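Troubleshooting log. The previous structure file for this entry was overwritten by mistake, so regenerating from the original sequence record. Sequence copied from the archived sheet and checked twice against the printout by T.R.
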Amino acid sequence: MLDQRSYTLLKEITSHHNITKSEVVRKLDLSNRQFAYDLERANTFLGNVDLPKIQYKQNALLVPEELYGITISGLLYDVNLTSFILSEQDRVFAIYLYNFIRQESVSNYHYQVLLGVSRNTALSDVRQVKLLCETWDLKWSYSRTDGYHVIGNEMDKRRLASYCCDMLYSQPLGKEIMLAILKSWNVENEIVQTKEIVERVLSHYNIEQVKNRKNEMIFRLTFFKVRGTHNEILFKIYEKNVIGLQKIFEAGSILAQELFVDDLIEEQYFVTLQLLVSLQEVDAKENPSLNQLAERIIAEFEKVTLLPIENRDYLQKSLYNHLVPAFFRISFRIPLINPLKSRIKEEYQHLFEFVQQSLEPLSMWTGQKISEEEVGLFTLHFGGYLTQNNKKITRKLRGLIVCSNGISSSLMLKAQLSLLFTEIDFMSTHSLRDINNISPKSYDMIFSTVDGHARGKPFYVVKPFLTQVEKNYLTQQVVKDFPEINVKDISVDRLMEVIRKYADIHEEEALFSELVNFLYLNNQKQGRFSPMLSELITEDMIQITDEALGWKEAITEASRPLLKSEKIEQDYIDAMIDNVVEMGAYIHVGKGIAIPHARPESGVNQIGMSFLRTKEPVLLLDKEEHAIDIFIVIAAIDNEAHLKALSSLTKILADDQKLTELKNADSKEKIIELIKEGEDEK
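Regenerated output below.
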């Protein structure tokens, strides 16, 4: 029987020609023992469905030609759940969805048959379903006449069903699980009918949706269609006004009429909402208020990161397209599944925190707390924008990016590929179907997040967020096809094997990542290095004065250590002063703190920060409401390098007790001690 891991191994092996064991093991983070175990599982499954097995000899995987593409061929859709080993979490989701569309009274025995588990296991899973329901304000109940059933608001039941569908969809075997649930009630054909109806209506109204979100929506709508209407009020009047004002409401109404037997107005609003949360692009004229909200979020992002936004119109347009579906998801508490959340928080920890702060206008507008899943997608959006704007390079080759995961993921993928292949100029589209409208002469290769093929051009399947391992293998593939690219064609796996022969490796993953960086990513700006606050505000960068200063003198004095160490030029000081004259007291961030800064190109040689405490308050622009007693000058070299230090500084300034201690500090040593304490508490 297949489990998630052995299925993932089978998919990896049958999706790439000539892949080696060492590549698979590293890519999937498997031990040799796990690899052997999972390959045996995969081969047992292949034998059970009368397919040839995969051979492994001398690090080479011998894959029969008919197995390539097996995981996307639809073959597994005809296999019932007893052919799979499901995790407890997936069983819980399966039970809820099975019950959600039940055609008769359901008992524990039904779950045993569905999942192929023992009575005790099914009972244990049911207890977990009960706990899951409670988190969604629902009650899981049982009676002799009704069997297992859910008590609660119909909208909450649908929200939980949406969550279960989307969670399963994000798993390797998720689509097969959902199809098996439909099959258990003999309604598996409903998925095909729903897909046909959705595609026809979207095409008629020329509605573009994020491909992954659309596929998730089709599964959700199928389960809602099978469940049928329940004659309950799903929306309040003001909620209907928000949904009904959208131009897309007509399409949603037609779609609802075709999906549901009972033509209820509630279902028209509900289906319209499903369309809204999956949109790809939206006309800014349709939601002018959300366009203004995008402006406010960008302004807030500028404020908290101290980053002047270039190409503002481009960022606002792309952010607006992301914001519209996010606004409806958040407002109506439609769950978002973001499998990349943990990696985004780890890779972009400080940017994630600043984006979270920047989304406060969205939280106020919707009256909802913004989930970390949503923050993660916005972080991808801003991260992709910042990375793209770090430097401009003239490229020769042309790459087409097909990213079906939405604008934010597309931006991030483009940024990663641009850094990886500096000699390739990239353009983006959102659907494989759109390739037919693009001349093959305009691109040399395609990078796609979905499987497909190009007309005589190399086609690389990639993830929206690439790991170091994936970057290594992708680079080798591209260099093999385009030897003219100025990247060393070295297999890091082969290099690791050579090192392993002559040395003991204590931190294998760290060494592998370091080698990938050294060999393939050496064209990136070193600005990716992010120093800590205590590494920037050192003793020689701190000044305490009891002199009475004018605001221009204070900025000049605060900048003096940076100028003396040649981290900035005099032009940078002049630019900071000119900015205040032109734009007002924007450097005053509250609580008597001013953070002067200007653009890197105004005279920054090296990243730096300097600190000045004035015992006599300085009136910025000679105004009493802008009395400043701490100036912290920031000299940033790019869009990212200063964010770690700024994050630490923000936490200290937000802590009233720490800020009071900082303002009362009578020595440089005490100021440094407070800064380091703030870092230790993170």
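Confidence is low (pLDDT under 50) at residues 391-395, 522-528. Archived copy saved in two places this time.
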